[in-house]
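Appendix C: a fully annotated inverse folding record. The material below is reproduced so that readers can follow the format used throughout the book. The structure is listed first as tokens, followed by the designed sequence.
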């Protein structure tokens, strides 16, 4: 069950290190980021105790594929993907909001709706919707980016009122979010999938807005299978979905929703292996490509060596 739970590397010209929920990010020469997508898994804003083999590789390679497929919409942060679990890119000043866009009433939005609320982040929802129904049109439901603790829903009005993002930039973020979601929807449809909802993160280099972090991965997005969607909705049955919602459901069934006083249930080897296989299944369905299981016996050594080689090339050039 070898996996990257955490890394402790030291690279040439390293100037900072940041450990996120699932990523270890090394700042190089105050110009570049070397991001290791670990095999840690989080749910309800809590990092679970066991790492999931191949999960980091799955997320990193899906993100690399979709960042490449959307670079005509706007530029992104990527310079190199020197290892299946690593991306090296440019440093940008991140916007302090995540742009969540929803085409269907699922997950958090459905939980709000089921609790009787008919507005999410200032976006009105019509009466009479069922879980997983298609919305009349996609809605943008931003969240604040919390350094510690939970991300919080926020409306466009509040973002502008609090000066979190300027109006000029926010209009561009909305435009990019809708264009990216449309592209993601088209790519998903070609794989027999429905892109249900997703989130995008943006940053700025000078005056230029760029796309940062990952996109269209099962950690940042929810997918349904297109085949059978209509029938399942008519019958009021759960949709077959490709996302990490199955992990959240397992946690809820075992008494954990990230609330104070709750303990994470035990994750045995069988569960960890099954989550790993689900992530690999997600990769193959989303990309339409066969997943290659890279060597993980000496995974940290492999990652460190590949980053060092890439940084040598980068620093030599620049």
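Designed amino acids, in order:
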């Amino acid at each position: 069950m070898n996996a990257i739970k955490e890394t402790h590397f030291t690279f040439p010209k390293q100037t900072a290190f940041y450990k996120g929920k699932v990523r270890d990010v090394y700042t190089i020469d105050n110009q570049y980021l070397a991001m290791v997508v670990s095999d840690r898994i989080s749910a309800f804003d809590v990092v679970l105790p066991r790492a999931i083999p191949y999960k980091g590789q799955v997320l990193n390679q899906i993100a690399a594929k979709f960042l490449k497929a959307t670079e005509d919409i706007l530029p992104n942060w990527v310079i190199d993907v020197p290892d299946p679990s690593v991306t090296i890119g440019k440093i940008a000043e991140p916007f302090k909001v995540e742009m969540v866009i929803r085409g269907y009433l699922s997950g958090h939005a459905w939980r709000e709706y089921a609790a009787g609320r008919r507005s999410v982040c200032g976006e009105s929802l019509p009466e009479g919707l069922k879980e997983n129904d298609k919305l009349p049109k996609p809605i943008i439901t931003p969240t604040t980016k919390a350094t510690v603790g939970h991300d919080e829903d926020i409306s466009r009005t509040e973002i502008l009122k609090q000066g979190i993002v300027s109006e000029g930039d926010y209009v561009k973020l909305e435009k990019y979010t809708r264009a990216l979601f449309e592209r993601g929807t088209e790519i998903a449809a070609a794989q027999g999938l429905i892109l249900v909802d997703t989130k995008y993160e943006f940053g700025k280099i000078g005056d230029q807005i760029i796309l940062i972090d990952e996109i269209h991965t099962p950690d940042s997005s929810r997918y349904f299978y297109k085949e059978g969607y209509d029938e399942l909705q008519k019958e009021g049955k759960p949709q077959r979905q490709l996302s990490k919602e199955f992990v959240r459901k397992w946690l809820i069934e075992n008494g954990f929703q990230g609330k104070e006083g709750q303990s994470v249930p035990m994750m045995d080897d069988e569960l960890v292996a099954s989550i790993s296989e689900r992530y690999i299944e997600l990769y193959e369905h989303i990309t339409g490509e066969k997943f290659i299981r890279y060597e993980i016996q000496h995974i940290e050594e492999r990652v460190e060596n590949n980053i060092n080689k890439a940084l040598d090339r980068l620093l030599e050039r620049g």
